[in-house]
Amino acid sequence: MARMKQFFLYFLMLVIFFIFVSLSTNLLMKEKFVDITNHEINISSPQIVVTESKASYNSGYIRGTITNDTGEHIKDKYLQFDFYDKDGIYLGTESKEIKYFNVDEMISFDISYTYKNVNKIKISFVDEVTKISSSNYSLFNLSEEEQKLIMPVALIVGLYAVLP
Question: 13 with 82, same domain?
Fold first, then answer.
């Protein structure tokens, strides 16, 4: 009987420890979203309102509404979101297609993204999705000629570091 009580106590301690570790892991690993308030809306009509914009280290989302106050029926347009980091370096583009948009209609949008360190979002209403060329935005803001000159040097240094 004493052996059974001891077994039960060990089992109970194991269950309590499992619950403690699970809860603390979930709390520590939960993504911490922060508000992004740095939005640049490039059009005045139709009216775009961002209701919620949050980002964690490697993902985020933006929610809002768009209202057709142009007085015309809008067809086959895109709501485009360009994402930038704190240094102004372009990270990527997401878009939402708007097939039919009646006069005075309000549409909600919800865009999720997986870019790291997003700090600024530019929102525009376009006919087709255009992606900014990443060659215009390099890590060290080098021209293409400078990048071509540095590539052989970087290759030699890389090979020297890897080879014995």
Answer: no
Cβ-count burial of 103 within 10 angstroms (0-12 exposed, 13-18 middle, 19+ buried)? exposed
Does 21 lie in the same domain as 95?
A: no
Same domain, 64 and 99: yes
* Number of domains into which the chain is organized: 3
Q: How far apart are CA 55 and CA 116, in angstroms?
A: 9
pTM listed for this prediction: 0.62
Same domain, 23 and 94: no
Domain that holds residue 122: 34-132
Strands (E), the chain: 34-35, 39-41, 47-55, 60-67, 74-84, 90-101, 106-113, 120-126
pLDDT tens string 40-90: 888 888 889 999 998 887 788 999 999 988 888 888 889 999 999 888 888
Residue 19: count other Cβ atoms within 10 Å of its Cβ: 10
pLDDT of residue 151: 82
Q: What is the dihedral of CA 90, 95, 101, 106, to 10 degrees?
A: -80
Neighbours of 39 (CB within 10 A): 15
Question: Within a 13 Å sphere around the CA of 127, how many CA atoms are in the beta-carbon half?
Answer: 0
Examine the domain organization and report whether 140 and 156 are in the same domain: yes
